[in-house]
Amino acid sequence: MAGSIKAPSPPRWLLAELTYACPLQCPYCSNPLDYANIKDELSTNDWKRVLKQSRDMGAVQLGFSGGEPLVRKDLVELVDYSHGLGYYTNLITSGYNMDKEKIIALKNAGLDHIQISLQASSKELNDFIAGAESFEHKKHVAKLIKKNGYPMVLCVVLHRQNIHQMKEILEMAIELGADFVELANTQYYGWAQHNRDQLLPTHEQLQTAEAIANQYQASQKGKMKIYYVVPDYFEGRPKACMNGWGTTFLTIAPDGLALPCHSARQLPNFDCPNVNEHSISDIWNDSTAFNYFRGDRWMKEPCRSCPEKDKDFGGCHCQAFLLTGDASNADPVCDLSPLHHTVTDAIEQAGQVSQTVEQPLLFRNPKNSKQLKKSP
Amino acid sequence: MSLQTDQAIKLSSGYRLQWEDAQQMFVLLYPEGLIELNQSSAEILQLCDAQHKLADIVQTLETKFSTTGLKNDIVSFLTIALDNGWINQSA
Q1: From the CB of residue A144, how many other CB atoms can be counted at a distance below 10 Å?
Q2: A10:B27 CB<8 A
Q3: Cα(first)–Cα(last) distance of chain B, in Å?
Q4: Domain-embedded: residue B2
Q5: Which chain B residues touch A61 with a CB distance below 8 Å?
Q6: Model's pTM, two decimal places?
Q7: How many distinct structural domains can be found in chain B?
Q8: What mean pLDDT is predicted for residues A164-184?
Q9: 8 Å CB contact of B1 and A222
Q10: Chain A interface includes B29 (CB < 8 A)
Q11: For residue A39, how many other CB atoms are within 10 A of its CB?
């Protein structure tokens, strides 16, 4: 199944997950459940090699992510190096431990933009979800970001426990002067998948929230751009995941594993290459992992004969694996999938579980990570 | 918010126009976003430098390509660009 007929398009986006370390404990974290067992981190020079090789191939958007990228002591040096290579550099941060000196140092190094996340619009809920007292500090950092001339994206991950705050979240974004707001409905991988029963919203909650988001999109037009990331469990068709596997996005995990999407390391028996052993060019063009879901030769029915296969590429392979046990199945959020009931059952089950019953949220921290088995 | 003829046009803050050797094209970069531009879009955006007004852009490109009648196409592209927040105007 590996191998593609024509040369793949070059990577345009590089997501550099600098570390899995993070001072927060968000229970919807997309990092792998067993992250605490992954101890190796690329060195500064390893990262510079990856950044140079990726840029040479055509990558131009660069996200520094994690974990919390501010934990890396060489962050400013890596931003400076990337800026020199011509990347548009994005820092994706919780804001935790950011201060004025760091913001200025990053600006001087050429950082183009900062995305800061808040967990809710109230201190109580924000600090509960984050697992750390952080609300006032984050708001202070958001203001510092604007004061120092960065464009600011405010990201709020939405789920059953905060989605009722949609109006307050958007008012907070206006107050903080956000240029862009990303209202990201939780995607169910990693820790979010584990906590799904506690996080999945109801249809009614989503309808209410989406109507409010639409109102603000209209009233803030020209001032603040609002992106609403749809909750794909509730859509009839899958997302065009990663804009197609191995077409656009390249993720490098903290230990150097190269991933076609940031969840791909959870696919079993899927031999993702490591940048310590291969060049980015070899990885992108020739590795089995990056070629695996390119094109449509891997497809089974109902995707294979589907007129929409060039639009959504069969959806998300990690989701297909998590919900059906086979990454080559159609993404079951598609209502044409014979296994679509795995999604509707999950929604129904979550609807029956109130947040007060036996199973509480499992927070993302090293202790919980070590206690969990490797797969979900 | 519509296109004003008496105001210079500039790229919005945080937006960057850049030639990409690997792809042999101009791209417009912004926070977590990337737009690959065709040649005519790139020619127009290169003139959105806080110096040129609409008439200047039309004249510059008509001269550069020895042609006339570009105004409608340029207006429609700039209207889309303005609507998307890629550019803005100030007096």
Answers
A1: 20
A2: no
A3: 14
A4: no
A5: 29, 32-34
A6: 0.93
A7: 1
A8: 97
A9: yes
A10: yes
A11: 9
